[in-house]
Design brief:
The protein has 191 residues and is mainly α. The protein folds into two domains: 2-87; 119-189. It is built from eight helices and no strands. It has helices at residues 2-30, 32-40, 44-51, 56-87, 103-116, 120-137, 141-159, 168-189. Helix 1 (2-30) packs antiparallel against helix 2 (32-40), helix 6 runs antiparallel to helix 7 (141-159) and helix 7 (141-159) packs antiparallel against helix 8. The longest helix has 32 residues, at 56-87.
Length: 191
């Protein structure tokens, strides 16, 4: 997509610039007043083309200029879409950095957090549910990458379920399902 956008942009700009310069030459060939007006007065070139529309060379040059401008716009739009999809940082992937005020408070908070995340099966189910919900609305490459990462998190959590867990067999069965869903999301992200 990137090279297609660059190609359209460059071809369009070259076509528009060459047509504009050739239009200036045509305006001077029609008369010095036309040439000076074409060069210095904004939108005088439109009046020049309208009054001389009956001449095939002038009409052809105007059409080439418009095609060049359209190609430039298409190239710019394609590049903008490519840049938006590939280079914009997704804020969901940026980890939060909480400030540490007191070491003892930080330790107790850390212990509480560890105790809360004690069931990898439940967390895996939650991650899978989130991935399925994200997949319902995903359209862009960035959104599909987020879906794939969420399926990957669910997959990793299911692999962490210990054999002693009551849902161990169910977790083993879900590993392949989550892996397949992750691969599907990766494929959709690469389109």
């Amino acid at each position: 997509m990137f090279f297609l956008g660059i190609g359209f942009l460059i071809i369009g700009l070259i076509l528009a610039i060459v047509s504009g310069i050739w239009g200036l030459v045509q305006a001077f060939s029609e008369g010095t007043l036309w040439g000076v007006s074409y060069l210095f007065i904004p939108f005088a070139f439109v009046i020049f083309y309208l009054t001389n529309w009956s001449q095939r060379k002038i009409r052809k040059n105007f059409i080439l200029m418009i095609i060049g401008l359209i190609l430039s716009l298409v190239g710019t739009g394609t590049l903008g879409n490519h840049i938006t999809n590939n280079f914009v940082v997704n804020s969901a992937n940026i980890p939060e950095n909480p400030t540490i005020t007191n070491n003892s408070e930080n330790t107790s908070t850390n212990i509480e957090t560890t105790e809360v995340i004690s069931d990898p099966f439940r967390e895996g189910i939650n991650a899978a549910t989130k991935a399925a919900e994200l997949a319902q609305t995903a359209n862009t490459q960035t959104q599909w990458n987020e879906v794939a990462m969420t399926w990957h998190q669910a997959l990793v959590l299911m692999k962490e379920v210990p054999e002693s867990h009551t849902k161990y067999e169910e977790a083993k069965n879900r590993i392949d399902l989550y892996r397949n869903n992750r691969e599907i999301a990766k494929k959709k992200a690469s389109y």
